[in-house]
Amino acid sequence: MTTHPDSPALSLPPELHAVLDAALDCVVAMGADGRVVLFNAAAQRTFGYTAEQAVGADMAELLVPPSLRARHRDGVARHLAGGAPAVLDRRIEITGLRADGSEFPVELTVTRLRGAEPVLFVAYLRDITDRKLAEAELKASRIRIVEAADAARRRIERDLHDGAQQRLVMLALQLRIARGRVGDGDESAALLDEALAELDGATAELRELARGIHPAVLTEGGLHPALRALAARSAVPVVLQEVPDARFAASVEATAYFVVAEALTNVARHACAERATVVVREEAGALVVEVRDDGCGGAAGAGGTGLRGLDDRLAALGGRLSMQSPSGEGTTIRAEIPCAS
Question: Which of 33, 124, 182, 341 has the highest Cβ tally under 10 A?
Fold first, then answer.
């Protein structure tokens, strides 16, 4: 690294130098010519340069990755020419460059010292590598929790379908055989008919419960057939305006399905609507799900437990849930679920 003995460092009282060197965050000052005039001890530890190496060097060449240098220089030039500052006095996250050529995430705030002559910019930087790693691990763990819950749902649905539901079907078959051997005048016939009716009701309830836990058609066929079946069961007429035939990750498909299911349940219960419309499409790396109705509107936020649960699920996948419900103009529920591979 070339030193710059002719480039003056910022002249500060020794006490202030001591304070800056005791700071945990990096403090780097730059003049209007783009050269470093102050490089505190934290900056030396973080970036891997000594103060002697850094002071006088072009800051863009020293600390800014090549892909960001043109933008950095253009921003400084625009500000010095009187343009509105784009970065000054804002906390942003950006990428820094170490002496060994490695890039790392930093949190940055830049300010221009008022009244300083010559012009002086001071940057406060913090290495946020550990925070980013922790955030990534938290996001990954939340996704694992959602996926584990969906896998458990699928297992329960299969157990109900292959176990209890099949046993009820076999029992119904045996009761029908017994009923066929009993004449209509026999007093046992009425009891068998009642038992068959109760058994049919229990089987239907169990089938509906299994479908609510996790619909088998979603696992086997994907969103299109699953939403088609959901629309067919809806108490309010539903138009599937647009639904892709493509398959997505199981967690994405399950989230999209339950967004539509919850929204249609709310339409039937609260909207006084004559029709609902469902649109599912890929858009900029996300699966966008919209459920619109022509009801009374005026819904007061996503306050129900169902929508709150969906909001949590979407947040775990990096998505978001929103609702628009102007009074008298119906309600639109919109979910954006990241689905890029």
Answer: 124
